Amino acid sequence: MSCCHASAYTVPFEFSELPFDEAVRLAADTGVISGDAGPLLETVIDMLDELERPDEHFDVIQVAGTNGKSSTVRFCAAILRGEGLRTALYTSPHLVRYPERMEVDGRVISDAAFAHGVSAAVEAGRRVNARRTKSGEGLYTITPFDLLTVAALVVFAEAGVDVAVLEVGMGGRWDATSATHPVGVAVTGIGLDHTRILGDTLAEIAVEKAAVIQPGRFCVLGEGTHDPEVQPVMDERCRACGIEPFVVTHEIVREPDRLGGSLTLRCPAPRGTYEISIPKPSYQAQNIACAVTLAECYLERSLDAAALESSLAACPTPGRFDIVRTDPLVLIDACHNPQSCETFISSVAQIVPTRDLRPVLLFATLADKDSQGIARALVPEFPRIIVCQTTSPRALTAEDLVCTVSEELEREGRPASDLMASFDSVADALSFATEEGLPLAVAGTITLAGEVAGLFAR
């Protein structure tokens, strides 16, 4: 641990403060500043250099992986906050609003802080590209994730945090968070996701994510890295970097006995073994264990057991087995690929073993995801299904969703009537289910989880 940083941070140049709505518009753009040279990791490095490295005013822990990384970063930040540190959290995507991606000491940053950070990042990008133009170099393409990552690091530095836990957006090698210099990293697990960019085998994807492992950093390998295709990649990377990784394990002592019930698990970590009882689903056990090991490795000491349990119990996991209404039930999970869907189903099945007693599935997915694989994981596990189209431009249409679900029902030999209804909007689907008094399990894409959560937040 090296959380003592000598000086406060201020942005080293003047810039215009953007209104919040304009900051959100830029953050949601497909290319804030487009050019021939990018997107590249050097873009973010040069922007941070222009800002005189705000990320060097606090420690960084970086978490990569296909599934579980959002929960792991949340749990890790909560544990470190419970140990008395001023913490920051950077995660993606948001469920409802962009500021949700950045937290300081367990609270989502204000709209003003978000706009301020984006404003500083925009000006840094403008300055970098102006200098490249002057020297005859191609303009960088500054992606939304580049912009948001730089903005977060500015906000965290100005807030005087001790440590920031950063979730990798995609991959690892070229991710914007890799422009920082983490003191430690974790890889939660590897699954098939973003195959068009990262590769279409687990080993290829593992190579990209394992790139966050670098000499001089401690490394935690989550239980999802134990796959026979993945583990050799991780082991070889650690050997090449001269690192002995900390390998995560856990033992479930008692499963939740109802939706929303408590999980008891035992976490053997490098400096202590902890028994924890918290109201979380069983699939979170490996993420909790990973976060416990991360926190111990960073602190270089054992954890306060009482503070650990209370920190984890109070830690929200938006969109992760999240009950937003109890009567009738609405359970949201942001599972968005076959692997995470199977994990979700495993936890549902442990609590409600009989399919006919489970809620109705409210299902949507995105066109650029493995929609058939996701449907194959989810549809057979619920008695009835409602499909709806999200507002994402990448959304699979309601018509295509009907075809996908119908094919799965036919494959299972189930009646077509098990597909209850289809809707062109999430709001209409939710209104129908509420009017009918139907309990819902909402799953298939982060976008669907966010839209449902947003409707309940109003």
Keyphrases for this structure?
458 residues, alpha/beta, eight-stranded mixed β-sheet, six-stranded mixed β-sheet, 15 helices
Shape: globular
Please give the order of strands in the largest beta sheet. 4-3-2-5-1-6-7-8
Q: Which stretches are poorly predicted, pLDDT < 50 over at least 5 residues?
A: 194-199
Could you tell me the radius of gyration in angstroms? 22 Å
The mean pLDDT is 91
User: What is the count of DSSP helices, taking H or I runs of 4+ residues?
Assistant: 15
How far apart are the termini?
41 Å
Helix content: 25-40%
Q: What can be said about this structure in brief?
A:
With 458 residues, the protein is an alpha/beta fold. Helices cover 39% and strands 17% of the residues. Strand 7 (218-224), helix 8 and strand 8 form a beta-alpha-beta unit.
Question: Would you mind describing this structure in some detail?
Answer:
The chain has 15 helices and 17 strands. The protein is of the alpha/beta class and 458 residues long. The strands form 3 sheets. The protein has an 8-stranded mixed sheet with strand order 4-3-2-5-1-6-7-8. A 6-stranded mixed sheet has the order 12-13-17-14-15-16, with helices on both faces. A 3-stranded antiparallel sheet has the order 9-10-11, covered by helices on one side. A hairpin with an 8-residue loop joins strand 9 and strand 10. The longest helix is centred in the N-terminal third of the chain and has 24 residues, at 111-134. It is globular.
